[in-house]
Amino acid sequence: MPQSSNYLPCAVIKADYLRQILTVWVKFQNLTNSAAIFFAT
Description:
The chain is mostly helical. The chain has one helix and no strands. The N and C termini lie far apart (about 60 Å).
């Protein structure tokens, strides 16, 4: 069995994992920005 066939799903899983972390981080940033605006006003 070639190595590349095992590598591709691993890369896809890592990319999806990073995308989920990025999505959560962006949501958290938006939440903190909203809270800062809320408390500043």
